Amino acid sequence: MKKTMNFEWRIGDCWNRIGVYGDQSCPELPPVIHCRNCEVYVSAARVLLERMPSDSYLQQWTQLIQDAKAENPSPSISIVIFRLETEQFALPTQVIHHITDLRTVHRLPHNKSECLTGLVNVQGELLLCISLSKVLPYGQTTDEESTSSHRIPPRLMVIQAGGERWVLPVNEIFGMYQLHPADIEYDSDELSLSEPSLVKGTFRWKNGNVHLLDEAQLFKYLKRSVH
Predict the structure, then answer these.
(1) Do 36 and 87 belong together in one domain?
(2) 81/47 same-domain check
(3) How many Å apart are CA 37 and CA 185, to the nearest integer?
(4) Backbone φ, ψ for residue 207 (5° rounding)
(5) Which domain does 116 fall in, by range?
(6) Could you give the number of structural domains in the chain?
(7) 85-114 core/surface letters (b: 16 or more CB in 10 A; e: else)
């Protein structure tokens, strides 16, 4: 009985009392050199690892994890904000290949697609040029406005996915920004779209709203529109 009680006591803290972390008076220490080589120490470690955690222990760690999530919210999304006429849109930076200067759009004969305006030579490669104003209608324009907006827009934005690239004429590029998912409102009712699924949601930026485009749906739509 005495031996068993001594064994239980030793499991609890013998290495801290008489072992390498204590006064090193344990008679079994010289032959094993270090407590980690002792069967008592190994058995104690096994018991500790195999025992069922208490409810209070689980609750404590659950709270710690929740607190950590609260302190470290979802990572922000890198986006590029641009303007089409009077509306502002955004796409994830990862799909933006590059921004280039204006250049001639070569019309395609027998083209029946409303959004496909032609081909653009970008770095020696002919890319399809798409008018997002046809994909993302934001209201009817007058004939005068239509004639004016028919001019080549200030910038061309090249987007890519799965090895395919497209050229999107845009009126203005505002640059890259970090968007927190919590700032997105998943309601695109205020923008009348022919393809509502193209917009993930809307977020406030400066003094206006920006419509975050769903890049996956956009690329699917572009492929369908030219075939």
Answers:
(1) no
(2) no
(3) 60
(4) -110, 15
(5) 77-225
(6) 2
(7) bebbbbbbeebbbeeeeeeebeeeeeeebe
Entry field: residues in the chain = 227
3-state secondary structure of 215: helix
Token pair of 137, please?
């209608």
Tell me, yes or no, whether 127 and 216 share the same domain.
Answer: yes
Q: How many Å apart are CA 70 and CA 73, to the nearest integer?
A: 6
Buried b (16+ CB within 10 A) or exposed e, 25-47: ebeebeebeebeebebbeebeee
- Domain match, 134 and 214 both: yes
Question: pLDDT, tens digit, for every residue of 185-226?
Answer: 986 555 555 455 788 899 999 989 999 999 999 999 888 877
- Look-up: residue for tokens 């994909």? 135
Residue 81 clears pLDDT 90, i.e. is over it: yes
Find where tokens 């400066």 sit.
206
Q: pLDDT category, 91, cuts 50, 70, 90?
A: very high
In a domain, 65, yes or no: no
Examine the pLDDT at 117 and tell me if it is beyond 50: yes
For the whole model, what pTM was predicted? 0.61
Largest CA distance in the chain: 103
Distance CA 171, CA 14 (A): 76
Q: Beta strands of 64-223 (E only): which ranges?
A: 77-84, 87-92, 96-100, 105-106, 116-122, 125-130, 155-161, 164-170, 172-179, 199-205, 208-213
